[in-house]
């Protein structure tokens, strides 16, 4: 029986909802479900609007399509287990399913970081080379950038399932979130996890760290260009095209940094803070990105309004 018990611990992980208050999980279930429904609706609307309107077939909007795709991927990869934990109070997840979720979750996050870099590059070209903008970013180049971004994400996350699979898990098998994260699972191993820690660190510094540096450099160059524009109106107009992108950057990196800080230094904080941060980290960016772009981008806003008016008049 004891042998069966250890075997069971090895084969599954347990995901948790509200720590210490599992009976209140159902309170989170409905808001979470609504959040996911809105996320799917928002991102699919963005993709649909850009697809049907030829005037939106511009590099900026194609990059926005890539962002919507990675947001959908992120939502779809975390939604099943989060709803399972909060809605059905069932936290058990097979080891391989957990590793698969971990792979997709991290891949889409890394892809999103790469897309934000591409969007910074797009804004820089639009502002510094307005006349050659379409020429410098034809559809073939955008397609290649998209493939490169997703390939990079796939390649850098690819080793993670293998370096986590080689670890034995014999202590607790209870994870601290309602989805599988690499740093979270790694802490439960009863073996040396230095390889995992080191790989995670190198990964963050060489990809996310580099991405942040490139984005900052792009914005320094954008500001330099904008400040050299003579008229104040033109200057503000140019900066206004960057507002949505700046919001998208903050929406993505702030929760990510927040979760890392809470993970590392927040041992004394209430488990509920950890739970909230972890849920914000995966659920909020995919929800807010379409909202920001719909509110801030006039063309998309008008398009959505037109579609709604058409529906109304048909009804």
UniProtKB/TrEMBL annotation:
Q: Which residues cross the membrane?
A: 27-49, 61-83, 103-121, 141-164, 197-222, 243-266, 272-293
Q: The G-protein coupled receptors family 1 profile domain covers which part of the protein?
A: 42-293
Membrane topology per the entry is: Multi-pass membrane protein
Asked if the keyword Cell inner membrane belongs to this entry, the reply reads no
Q: Which GO terms describe its cellular component?
A: plasma membrane
Q: Which GO terms describe its biological process?
A: cellular response to lipid
Q: Which SUPFAM superfamilies match?
A: Family A G protein-coupled receptor-like
Q: One GO molecular function term?
A: G protein-coupled receptor activity
**Keywords on record:** G-protein coupled receptor, Membrane, Olfaction, Receptor, Sensory transduction, Transducer, Transmembrane, Transmembrane helix
Q: Where in the cell is it found?
A: Membrane
Q: Which PANTHER family match?
A: OLFACTORY RECEPTOR 51H1, OLFACTORY RECEPTOR 56B1-RELATED
Name of the protein in its database record: Olfactory receptor 51H1-like
Q: What organism does the UniProt record list as the source?
A: Podarcis muralis (Wall lizard)
Question: What lineage does UniProt assign to this protein's organism?
Answer: Eukaryota, Metazoa, Chordata, Craniata, Vertebrata
